[in-house]
What does this fold into?
Amino acid sequence: MDSTSVANIILYSVTALIVVVFSVMAVTTRKILRAATYLLFVLIGTSLFYFQLGYQFLGAVQIAVYAGGIMVLFVFAILLTHKPNEAAPVLLTHRSKMGVLVSVAGAALLLLAIFYMPIAHDMTLAGCLGSDITIKEIGRAFTGTDKFQYLLPFEAISVLLLACIIGGVTVARKR
It folds into this structure.
């Protein structure tokens, strides 16, 4: 092993630990603004994974779109609908037990799906499709209107987000 691969392993391990810790903190804190801040750290940690894999474009998109745009939208919605220093009420015990049960069942199903997917058995997505996937092809898929292209769902989500912002402003005005 050379020093570069050891450094990559250490960077990956530290980043993975940070992502896991901040993920747990995001879902366990009772203050919603802190949860959004912890989520921001998780998204930045995810972008570090992309940069480490050599996907600079995806890392930059992760930071610009998710860590930048979506987090601004979350914080904007939080500040419009909640008091920032207000703690969330404690859930009743049967609801928290049900949440833990659903989380464990979801994790078990996810692990089962990962182990039985053909991609997990030395096959890549590009190998399944028969060719290498380029950024140009990804761009065409996102902005196209043909079958298996995503312009219409992207526009539908943008209209949904606009409706959520309008709803948040309406709720904030009625208070």
Remarks:
- The mean pLDDT is 78.
- Residues 3-28 form the longest helix (26 residues).
- DSSP finds seven helices and no strands in the chain.
- The radius of gyration is 20 Å.
